[in-house]
Request: fold
Amino acid sequence: MEEIMTNRLDRSFYQYQEEFEEAALRTLRSGWYIMGKELEAFEEEYAAWIGSKYCVGVGNGLDALTLACRAIGLKEGDEVIVQGNTFIASVLAISNTGAVPVFAEPDEYYGIEADSVRGAITDKTKAVMVVHLYGQPVELEEIVKICREYDLRLIEDCAQSHGAKYYGRMSGTFGDIGCFSFYPSKNIGAFGDAGAIVTDNEEYRDRIKMLRNYGSKVRYQNEETGINSRLDEIQAALLRVRLRHAKEMYEERLAIAGRYREEVKNEKIELPLRRPQADHVYHQFVIRCKERDELAAFLKERGISTIIHYPIPPHLSKAYEYLGYKKGDLPKTEAWSEEVLSIPMYNGMTKEEQDRVIEALNAF
Ligand SMILES: *Cc1c(COP(=O)(O)O)cnc(C)c1O
Reply:
């Protein structure tokens, strides 16, 4: 029996093969590969899809987050509150600017919890970074309120939440800057590294446009110490194809998630909760199980791969030892890192593959 992997990037390529090949060839033949018409068109189309005034394409998701942190003016010693249960990149973006990441706990939907944010605010706090983890928006209403009350900037890490809505409005439009990754496995994925920011703020847009291109607006005139982080023409052209099909790709994931919800019936397995105000886009379908490692081994024996997002929370990673956190400081974050398991979920997943996953989960 063929192994069922957690993701199959080839499947969604073949779903739209002709369009992808046409876009790549068109770009190759154009003779223009960086900062051209494809990028401009993608930025316009992405901003319109999200419902933001501006979009700026960059090299990857981490750069989107890092440039957002720089654009809002973070500097050495500033504090930024971020949830403990996230991918390391959210935290790296903060520490890249010299600011100090301060960790808060998640709620039962895996999003940053408002009370935990309130408890972490000090007179050095400058911003909050929320992560719409697994594809479900955090409790934005409360978080936006807190940011207004304490005059904090809000950055949204939307690397897993393309198209996810909160009260019908897209994630990425609630904060000062929304940051996206188009890493190939994301819900809107490129065929290499790519990322973008969205914002309604002209000043932030201009600053990030400058920073992504060596800190210059006019060639060879450098106003700031920028970086090289550009979204290239081929990736932009390929992403435009994805964007055209975003709705049906989302609906396909929703249908798979729907089957998991209906058909997985096992007392040992907890299905993900849905926040009533939010639309989940199921970047990952994350279950919880007290016997997580046994379950993963059981599935593996049946030819089904799983993955843990994430086994070591950033505050316990070696990289952030210097912050001085120890085991027990974030009990919820830590407990969940021992129980969560992401099961196969991807565009182009066959009905038979879904059946096999469901049967194996029920047999555990
Ligand atoms: C993927 C991801 C990133 C980083 O994106 P890259 O394009 O790989 O740099 C940041 N934050 C989260 C939550 C992610 O899942």
In short: DSSP finds 13 helices and twelve strands in the chain. The pocket of pyridoxal-5'-phosphate is lined by residues 60-62, 86-87, 89-90, 131, 157, 159-160, 181, 183, 193, 195 (CB under 6 Å).
